[in-house]
Design brief:
Number of helices: 4
Oligomer: single chain
Structural class: mainly alpha
Shape: rod-shaped
Low-confidence stretches: none
Radius of gyration: 28 Å
Strand order of the largest sheet: 2-1-3
Strand content: 5-15%
Helix content: 55-70%
Order of helices and strands: HEEHEHH
Largest sheet: 3 strands, antiparallel
Number of strands: 3
Distance between the termini: 75 Å
C-alpha cells in the first residue's frame, strides 16, 4: 500500500469519527486477534484499527450494550471494595457491660443531634 494513500485514508477515517472515544469491535486477525471484543479507544487508534482491518465501528446497539456492561462491572467492583471495608469487632459480654455502664454514668450522649 502506498504510504500517502494509507495516511490519507487514516485522516479521512478519523475525520468521520464523531465520538472522542469511539467503541470498536475487533475482527479476527492472522496474528491472533480475537473477533468480537468491544473496546473504547481514542479516535486516532480507532481510525488506525479500522484502516488496518483489525476492527469495525460498533453500532449504536453494540455501544449501549458495551457501556451498560462497563457500568455493571464498575458497580460490582465498587460493591466488592465496599465489602472489603466492612469491619467487625468482637466484644466480650464483660466489655459490653462495661461500655454500657460507662455511658450511663457519663449521662446522655449527643449522638441524637
Amino acid at each position: 500500500m502506498d504510504l500517502k494513500q494509507y495516511f490519507r485514508k487514516l485522516r479521512e477515517t478519523e475525520a468521520c469519527l464523531t465520538d472522542p472515544y469511539p467503541v470498536v469491535i475487533s475482527l479476527e486477525t492472522a496474528d491472533g486477534g480475537k473477533a468480537g471484543v468491544a473496546t473504547e479507544v481514542p479516535r486516532a487508534v480507532a481510525a488506525r484499527m479500522i484502516v488496518e482491518a483489525q476492527a469495525v465501528l460498533a453500532s449504536e446497539e453494540e455501544k449501549e450494550l458495551y457501556r451498560s456492561q462497563r457500568v455493571a462491572a464498575k458497580q460490582a467492583a465498587e460493591k466488592a471494595e465496599l465489602a472489603k471495608r466492612v469491619q467487625v469487632t468482637i466484644v466480650s459480654d464483660t466489655d459490653l457491660e462495661r461500655q454500657i455502664s460507662s455511658r450511663k454514668s457519663n449521662g446522655p450522649s449527643n449522638s441524637g443531634k
